[in-house]
Amino acid sequence: MSERLLAVSDLNVRYGKVEAIYKASINVDRGTIVSVIGPNGAGKTTLLNAIMGVLPSQGGIEFCGANIGRLTTEQRVAKGMCLVPESRELFAQMSVADNLELGAFTRYRRGDKGIKQSLDEVYELFPRLLERRTQLAGSLSGGERQMLALGRALMSKPTLLMLDEPSLGLAPLIVKEILHNISNLRSTGVSILLIEQNARAALQISDYGYVLENGDIAMEGLSKELANDPKVIESYLGMGGAGQDRDKK
Amino acid sequence: MDSTIFLLLAQDALTNGAIYILLALATILIFGVTRIIFIPQGEFVAFGALTLATLQMGEVPGTVWLVVALAVVAAIMEAYRLLRMGVSREIPAAVARTLAPPLVVSGIAYVCAPLNLNLGWQVLLTVMLVTTLGPLVYRVAFRPIADTSVLNLLIAAVAVHFALVGLALLFFGAEGFRTPAFSEAQIPLGVLTVSGQSIWVYVMSIAFIGLLAYFFGRTMYGKALRAVAFNRNGARLVGISPSLAGTLAFALAALIGCLSGILIGPITTIYYDSGFLIGLKGFASAIVGGLASYPMAAGGALLVGITESYSSFWLSAYKDVVVFTLIIPVLLWLSLRSVHFEEEE
Ligand SMILES: Nc1ncnc2c1ncn2[C@@H]1O[C@H](COP(=O)(O)OP(=O)(O)OP(=O)(O)O)[C@@H](O)[C@H]1O
Ligand SMILES: [Mg+2]
């Protein structure tokens, strides 16, 4: 087994009185892709935001063996975590190139010399961003925006990349392309925690999977096995995705 | 009014307008980055001019003691914050980081003040002292409440304004000062003579605006400040901390205020409370730009400068009234076009 990178244990997150995540425990090993699937409102986005420190939480979050529960979001970025949030949070009024450059802000502060090279790599991965580099991020198409969000995250050279529905609202062909890019990232040494509506594709490219329901980890296992589990097939992989619009209450 | 007077007033309008542009930029910068409507911007102007005037007399300006006192308070606050977070072993380093730059700057100023250095060095000392003041004011007055509403931040800003005006009275007295001009030259230009100091104001403000444009457009830290202003959450996700951005914005705002004070010091007599009206006109210009648009604020600043200058000719006692009254239709027009701010979060 490889080395543990992220260990979340008994995490609780609440919005006021509402308990959104209850005693969730998930692990990510170095060099693996882990996916979290679950119905709308299960708490997937909440989970990632809590791990990133965007939302306050109780419980243990260990990253590279150190407890990071008290660190701010910025400090977690400096430690090598990076989140591409559901809302993307691009700098709409700034150019594509500036957005990418800002992705490397923490590296710039450290005096990292490889930023230019990373930029070239991102442009190589997404040639469309190179064509549009002087365009404002706000004027990009949906798919280009996803590429930019992913590219900006890669600019920070993360150890752990967390993606919240990277294929949201994209045409099937682009979804395939983006997911293909993501699975290629593993070979560059990045570990990935992936949330995806498209459960079949998520389980296809990931090594390990968790099923989140009502803020609880309902099931977990190797992705191959989850993909063949009758319950998962029925709820998440079946035709039309019957479980997809089941809500929390 | 004949054409000579017309041109003379135009020269005044441009000189003041240039200063208001700088102050409007600082106001927009601080509001964008920290959501603080920074009323005391003008106090940096007064502190700049009066600190320089005190150095001119070979005395140690009170600014030195203010910087020391604020640094000590900031260090105590930092230690207390870290203690409460339960990371007391980080306290010595944090205290040293908070104390070192202000103490070095005020130490240098203290030693150099009686030496009667030439004007250039005194300007440099002044700029260093007042620029240091900016981040300290942010650390002590605003950072602890950085996440509260815009209204609370505004109230804190008003309190800081009164505190700084009071301290200025204590440090510099009720008397007004005029600092020596950088240039005594009188350049004949057609029917008009342009004073060397006005030229200084134009050149310096254009140069400084150019520098700021370069900073915001080309450098990583400048882009980071813009990023925070555009999207606070996005900025945190790429690792830009709001308090780092706030510190940087306040340092820039203090620098801008101080330079403006030094530039107009030879043109206008500056009293301990002169900063308020000057700052308010910069603020009015920023409002024209909806507290967000730099070019519109620059236009606003020129408009304010022109209005002020020409109304001082006909209605000199009421020139400020005219200036601020003129803002009302602009605000109405802007609100009709519904260029307004949603509070975030
Ligand atoms: N700011 C908030 N305040 C109160 N409740 C919230 C807030 N954000 C999310 N919730 C609730 O927390 C629960 C989990 O939401 P979350 O966004 O994490 O779901 P999700 O699994 O990401 O769903 P989706 O698949 O639709 O993105 C939902 O019931 C939601 O209504
Ligand atoms: Mg979600």
UniProtKB/TrEMBL annotation, chain B:
Keyword Transmembrane: yes
Main subcellular location: membrane
Places the protein is found: Cell membrane
Topology versus the membrane: Multi-pass membrane protein
Cross-referenced InterPro entries: ABC_transp_permease (IPR001851), BCAA_transport_permease (IPR052157)
Keyword vocabulary terms for this entry: Amino-acid transport, Cell membrane, Membrane, Transmembrane, Transmembrane helix, Transport
Keyword GTP-binding carried by entry: no
Entry's transmembrane regions: 20-42, 62-83, 95-113, 119-138, 150-174, 199-216, 237-263, 283-305, 317-336
Family as reported in the entry's similarity comment: Belongs to the binding-protein-dependent transport system permease family. LivHM subfamily.
Family matches, as PANTHER family: ABC TRANSPORTER PERMEASE PROTEIN, BRANCHED-CHAIN AMINO ACID TRANSPORT SYSTEM PERMEASE PROTEIN LIVH
UniProt-recorded name of the protein: Branched-chain amino acid ABC transporter permease
Species this chain originates from: Geomobilimonas luticola
